[in-house]
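Researcher: Please predict.
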Amino acid sequence: MTDSALLLASIPEIGALYRSGQLSPLELTRLCLARIETLEPQLNAFITVTAELALSQAAQAETELRSGQDRGPLHGIPVALKDLIDTAGIRTTCASRILSANVPEADAPLVARLRVAGAVTLGKTNLSEFAMGVAHADYGQVNNPWDASRTAGASSGGSAAAVAAGMCFAAVGTDTGGSIRIPASYCGIAGLKPTYGTVDLSGVFPLSWSLDHAGPLARSSADAALLLGALTGRTFSSEVKLDGLRLGVIQRANPYDQPEVETVFAAACRALEAAGAELCEVQIPDLGQADAALFSVLLPEAATLHAHWLQWQGGDYAPDTRAQIELGFALSAVTHVRAQQFRRHLTRRFLEALGRLDALISPSVPWVAPGEDPVFTGGEGAAEGHRSVPHNLTGLPALSVNMGFGAHGLPLGLQIIARPHAEAVCLGIGAATEGLLPDAQRRAPLALA
């Protein structure tokens, strides 16, 4: 198997090579580090690369596997962490000048779980400043492996780009309004926002504590299931039969939808129906209020978190980040409370729809990756999260998988939403969809061509 083929292999394929003695964790980790060194000037996916630590962890994994100590499917697998997740002795910057020298004393619990699982951590991935959707000039935008003149998506773009480009096999991201699913769509990979609270967020710097989720990004739904298992200590199946499955197609008009998105989504729906799934159109009442509700929750929570730094280090923020945070001080308590009430109402509406269906589907994003990330409080920013935002408000699990390609061969995402704690349903439908659309899985980003 060539080096490029190894870097695009699935986690189970790599595990089988390890256990048969055909490949070692040290060999693969060195390949990943070499890939990072080669592609970083183009992609800017990492803030900190922990090569020495990764090689030490890989050597330990190699010794353990050879001696018969097997920690499970992630043992010796190179992964990456979004740089707002605490790592003991390794700086955690949140891609901000304010925390550029921040070195936590302890690992976040999710990092500790990955260490127990034997994963090899290659480093900390780039993000928009404090996950607010704007890149700080000190760190820069993450570029897309399919076209480096375009964004990989905010705010988990570094994690998505690293996975898509073969720098690592999976990565952890966070999602407050679509920040796992949007980069997953732009980079042609699988990205899961689990049910709210499924992954422990202790030691993860918050954007909005009542909307934040952490979850996996990987090149397939099956690989994402393995990373989610390590993050939670549970097992998640990614096997679902499409025949007889009832799927609701969410109807939500978006004037920003590009025709190619509708065309590729329609083709994916036809493929699902041909495989035996039953599709019907679904209207979620009051869904049009979701965008405003998200901002009315997120902005005051973010402003509360940043009030001290705004007073004493306001000039250290990127101007657009600071402007967005300051919007939170202008929103009234009544507006915030009404938005929280709307969340409960919207959740009931979704649960009513899911009571008669197995899952809901929609496009993930209304367009292919743009040249740069829009400011999320602006018109284009709100439109970008039009499909993803409702599921942060409800906390329901939502997965984006690659459903095909649009203009210039750029990936497009299909979003799958299920009942609370039904991550396995999302992942199973995602895996089945990936199997139906093999062309969406065969292609490789230009970074690996």
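Model: The first helix runs from residue 3 to 7.
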